[in-house]
Amino acid sequence: MQFSLRQYQAEAASHNHTDFHQIIISDLGLLEMEIEGRGGQVRGTKMAFVPAGDTHAYRAEGLNRFLVLDVDIAVAQRTGIEKLWRRNANASPYLQMAVGRQAVISDLFHVLSKTMRDGNQIRLPSRVGGCGAMIDDLTDEKGIVCDGLRRILSGTSAALVTSTNGSGLPGVLPSRLQRVLDWADVRMADPITVGDMAAVAVQSESSFFVSFQRYLGTTPMRWLTEQRLLAARQLLLGSDGPTSIGVLASQVGFTDQSAFSRAFSRRFGHPPIRMLRQSSNHVRDIN
C-alpha cells in the first residue's frame, strides 16, 4: 500500500489505474470528482473509493490537501477492505463516514503526516495503538493504516450526491467558511480553537469571527459545541454506541466529562447517562 498527501489543481485531469483501488479522504478543502460518469465530492466526512480500472476525473479550487491511499487489489481482498466497501456502501464510489469515526481519520492524518516529515520511528496516538512503529509497519496488512481503513469502512454508507453545504442551505456560504466547517467536522474529537479555524479560513481571528457570525448566526465555538453535542446524541442513539460517558465525551472532543454532561443536559434537557442506560437496556432486551 502506498499513501501520499496531495494538492490538486483547478484544471481538471483524469486517469485510471488497473492494479490498485484508490481511497481519497479530505484533510482540507473540496475535491470535485467524476468516477465512471458518476459525479460527487470529497470533503469533510465524505470520502471516495475509486475501484481499480475506473476512469476518474478530478479538480479542486483554493486551499486543499487530501490523503490518497493506493490499496493493492489483493491486499484489499485479504484484509476485508473491499468486502466492507461493497457491503456497507453498496460499492458506491462516494462514501459517508459514520459519526464517531472522526478520531480514526484524525489519527491517521497525524501519523502519516509525521511519517512523511521525518521518516523515523514515531509514537502512535493512543486511539490507534500505544507502541512505536516504523514506516513499513504502518502500511502492511496488519498495520494501522489497514486497521484504520477497516474501522472507517465498517461505519460508512453510500453518500448522497448533493451540493448542499454544512449549514443545510445550498450555496450560501463563502468557500473559505465551508472549508472550515468541513475541516472541523473531520476533527470533531480534537481540540480546536478559533485561531485554528481562522488559519484554515486564511483570515485574522477578528475577521473570521465577524464573517462566521454573519453567515452562520452564531460564534465559531458555539457552533462547534453544538455539532459535538449533536454528534454525541447520535452516537447514544446508535446500536454500537459508546460504553461509557468518558469514552463518549472523548469521541466528540470534550476533555472534561463533567463539562460534557452539563453541556449535554442544558442542550437536551436530560443527562447523557440516561440515554446510555436506556441504550444498554435495549441491547440487553434484544439479546
Automatic annotation (TrEMBL):
<dbReference type="GO" id="GO:0003700">
    <property type="term" value="F:DNA-binding transcription factor activity"/>
</dbReference>
<dbReference type="Pfam" id="PF12833">
    <property type="entry name" value="HTH_18"/>
</dbReference>
<protein>
    <submittedName>
        <fullName>AraC family transcriptional regulator</fullName>
    </submittedName>
</protein>
<keyword id="KW-0805">Transcription regulation</keyword>
<feature type="domain" description="HTH araC/xylS-type">
    <location>
        <begin position="178"/>
        <end position="278"/>
    </location>
</feature>
<keyword id="KW-0804">Transcription</keyword>
<dbReference type="InterPro" id="IPR018062">
    <property type="entry name" value="HTH_AraC-typ_CS"/>
</dbReference>
<dbReference type="GO" id="GO:0043565">
    <property type="term" value="F:sequence-specific DNA binding"/>
</dbReference>
<dbReference type="InterPro" id="IPR018060">
    <property type="entry name" value="HTH_AraC"/>
</dbReference>
<dbReference type="InterPro" id="IPR050204">
    <property type="entry name" value="AraC_XylS_family_regulators"/>
</dbReference>
<dbReference type="InterPro" id="IPR009057">
    <property type="entry name" value="Homeodomain-like_sf"/>
</dbReference>
<keyword id="KW-0238">DNA-binding</keyword>
